[in-house]
Design brief:
Elements lengths: L2 H4 L17 E5 L9 E10 L11 E4 L19 E2 L11 H4 L8 E6 L1
Antiparallel strand pairs: 1-5, 2-3, 2-4, 2-5
GO cellular component, one term: extracellular space
InterPro entries: Ca-dependent_lectin
């Protein structure tokens, strides 16, 4: 667990382009890639808390994230990533909720083909 090492640090951005591969895709809620796809990395879906005005689109954060240099007051300058969790509040949930446990973090995997 490197959560203390990455607290208040910039997160490097990744935009996947893999030579010889035609498609890179994030599979939310998955832990492995479909058949014939290659795993680039796996991790957890993260975003800012919904109470922030600049709420961002969810991203798949590597399960072993890297960080850049420490920035004083970094928490006031950009996204404060938080794990996304499943919320299933009703007994008669859709098939989506049958596959997940309420209160657990959502995994993700980035795959290429």
């Amino acid at each position: 667990d490197n959560s203390q090492e990455i607290h208040d640090r910039n997160v490097p951005c990744v935009a996947c382009h893999i030579q010889g591969r035609s498609l890179v895709n994030v599979f939310p809620g998955w832990q492995s890639c479909p058949d014939r796809w290659s795993t680039e990395y796996r991790g957890f879906l993260m975003t800012e808390r919904s109470v922030y005005a600049n709420n961002k689109v969810p991203v798949c954060m590597d399960e072993s994230p890297e960080s850049l240099e420490h920035i004083p007051d970094a928490d006031a300058r950009g996204a404060m990533f938080r794990n996304m969790e499943v919320v299933c509040e009703h007994k008669n949930e859709t098939s989506f909720c049958e596959a997940y446990t309420s209160g657990h973090e959502l995994t993700c995997v980035v795959c290429s083909v």
